[in-house]
Amino acid sequence: MSDAAFPTPMTTLVFIPGFMCDASLWQALLPGLRFPGQGQFVDLNQGNSIDEMADRILASMPSNSLLIGFSLGGYVARRIAFKAPDKLAGLILLNTSARPSTLAELERNQQQIKMLEVFPYKGQTQTALRRALHPDRSDNPALLSQLQAMSLRLGKDVFIRQLALVREDGHPELPHIHCPALVIASRQDQMRKLEEAENLANGLPHAQLHIVEDCGHMSVLEQPDEVRRVMNRWIDNLN
Question: What pTM was computed for the model?
Answer without folding.
Answer: 0.94
